[in-house]
Design goal:
With 554 residues, the chain is mostly beta strands. It has 8 helices and 37 strands. It has 2 domains: 163 residues, Immunoglobulins (Immunoglobulin-like), CATH 2.60.40.10; 374 residues, TolB, C-terminal domain (Neuraminidase, 6 Propeller). The strands form 10 sheets. A 6-stranded mixed sheet has the order 1-6-5-8-9-3. β32 and β33 form a beta hairpin. α1 packs antiparallel against α5. The longest helix is centred in the N-terminal third of the chain and has 13 residues.
Length: 554
């Protein structure tokens, strides 16, 4: 049954690809220098590749030859463009021979001198079709180093198993790209980009907006597809939030702006930024962190270029239909900091992060002590100096009236900091970020999954090595996109599959959206209604002269 379902899904998508039948008669493909050779010469070289005569067994892979990506047993959706196959070795051989096997039967081979391979649409389509039509929806990819005295001897091999899922992604991804370190993006907001990516296509992500003279940050969609919200600092008001309803070429008018500073500012708070705003499924309500003081240090380190989290604040509600601000009862305790809200898919519950206010830490923020921290400091030493841990709580929303809050078992009182709760579309699960301390961009952060009603929390198998955060569920609830650091100090996007039991697969790096100097952040799966979003522009002048561009100011 699984094979039939996978075959049907892949067949529907592969009809858009070049026919794989052309590959059947050509079992060897040539890249780079081999593609430049006369074909008879290249084929003669390929045919002469052999195992060492003194060893009838296939050689074991030397310790220096290993796969970098994909990871073993990575699970691929049927509607994803070909991935990057990347391996490393201590020495570069005369050639690399990559062979794809289906149930131990060779499907085709590729000859190259490069240490990586991106299958063509035809090759990738052939791999998907063969996996769908086989008894096992898995393939084995083997890379062999070819060298020796004759330049044709296989000296080592390394194999990798990949698996194909019948579950499509079924959505595009909207994300933010900012230059790093943070100070560069702060001084040059015009370099920030908002992009729309289609994982099914092999091209780069489409640019939707850039060149803003003012700072723009987080964005969120109403899961029902009615509205896109985004933080933009307009007219010097860092609490401005724009609500976009145009689904194609959006032009923002002043009437589309909401300011979290239109509400009374709580005693002692300078203003409201409106941090980590979330939209209700219908788009009628927005919830955000307001009345906050925040600890913020801009750092020179490209990998972790800021330390940031609110040390006071509560959850405010904005009713779009009635143009009315209110506090969310149960998430507006003056003794606590409450932040990072998220709606359940039915809109009845809000999950948020909460911690008791630390008077010593608050004094360090308000006295200027934190602002005086050197930019050359590392996030590790600052984490030791300013530790802070959040728990995840939930509260009934009750159309903005709130209710009695309660800690979420498995995401609270665990000696760690827990934040960025995100409900699965069916409401069964919550995936959240956990780190030893802090919020947002933290080393050793990992994604955890817990039943939405509370229970035992487990780390996702899709976590990458250095950092995991900023995650979003696909509309069908089977895939999670997130930002992470694995083999680069710059944040990249990754994809992992989550099954009905909450188990995830090793993650796939969405390498086409990576940049050496720009961090990919805040990925959000896009509701179908926004899938054709082409541009976001402003119908009025943006004054960048009031933009704060220096110092540890937040």
């Amino acid at each position: 049954m699984r094979s039939l379902l996978l075959a049907a899904v892949i067949a529907a998508w592969c009809c858009l690809q070049p026919p794989a039948s052309a590959l059947a008669s050509a079992d060897i493909h040539f890249l780079d220098a081999f593609a430049s050779m006369p074909e008879p010469e290249a084929r003669s070289f390929a045919a002469s590749i052999h195992y060492p005569p003194e060893s009838p067994e296939k050689p074991q892979p030397p310790a220096s030859l290993k796969w970098v990506e994909p990871l073993p047993d990575s699970l691929f959706p049927p509607d994803i463009a070909s991935p990057l196959f990347w391996w490393v070795a201590a020495e570069k051989p005369a050639a690399w021979k990559i062979t794809v096997y289906a149930e131990d039967e060779p499907l085709f081979s590729v000859l190259t001198r490069s240490g990586h391979w991106i299958p063509t649409a035809g090759q990738w389509g052939a791999m998907q079709s063969r996996a769908a039509n086989g008894q096992d929806a898995a393939l084995r990819v083997c890379v062999a180093s070819v060298g020796g005295w004759d330049g044709r001897t296989i000296e080592g091999e390394a194999s990798l198993r990949i698996v194909f899922s019948p579950d499509p992604i079924g959505a595009k991804i909207f994300f933010l790209r900012k230059p790093v370190p943070f100070a560069v993006g702060q001084a040059h907001p015009e370099l920030t980009q908002w992009l729309l990516a289609d994982p099914a296509q092999p091209g780069e992500a489409a640019l939707v907006m850039d060149g803003l003279p003012v700072c723009g940050n987080c964005h969120a969609f109403a899961s029902g597809g009615s509205v896109l919200g985004m933080d933009v600092d307009i007219d010097g008001d860092k609490g401005n939030y724009m609500l976009i309803r145009d689904k194609d070429r959006a032009t923002v008018a002043r009437e589309d702006l909401v300011s979290w500073n239109d509400r009374p500012t709580p005693a002692g708070a300078p203003y409201s930024f409106g941090l980590f705003t979330a939209l209700s499924p219908s788009g009628r309500y927005a919830v955000s962190t307001v009345g906050e003081h925040s600890l913020f240090v801009s750092l020179d380190d490209k990998a972790f270029s800021q330390l940031f989290y609110p040390v006071t604040g509560f959850i405010g509600v904005y009713d779009v239909d009635e143009a009315r601000h209110a506090n969310l009862a149960g998430a507006a305790d003056e003794r606590c900091v409450q932040t990072s809200p998220a709606f359940s898919p039915d809109g009845r519950t809000v999950a948020f992060s909460r911690a008791p206010i630390d008077p010593t830490l608050l004094k360090a923020v308000t006295s200027g002590q934190v602002r005086a921290e050197p930019h050359s400091a590392s996030i590790f030493e600052l984490n030791e100096k300013y530790p802070f841990r959040f728990d995840i709580w939930t509260v009934p929303f009750n159309e903005g009236r709130g209710g009695e809050p309660s800690p979420l078992q498995g995401a609270s009182d665990n000696g760690m900091s827990n934040y960025f709760a995100r409900y699965s579309p069916d409401g069964e699960w919550i995936v959240f970020t956990q780190s030893p301390t802090g919020l947002v961009l933290q080393p050793f952060s990992r994604l955890m999954i817990v039943p939405a009603a509370g229970g035992n929390a487990e780390p996702l198998a899709g976590n990458v090595e250095g950092m995991n955060s900023w995650h979003s569920w696909s509309p069908n609830g089977r895939w999670l996109v997130f930002a992470g650091k694995s083999r680069s100090p710059v944040t990249e996007l990754f994809l992992t599959h989550i099954d009905e039991q909450g188990q995830s697969s090793p993650s796939i790096r969405l390498f086409r959206y990576s940049s050496e100097s720009m961090a990919a952040m805040v990925p959000e799966f896009v509701p179908e209604s926004f899938a054709d979003l082409r541009s976001i522009r402003f119908g009025f002048h943006l004054d960048g002269s009031r933009q704060s561009k220096s110092g540890n100011i937040r």
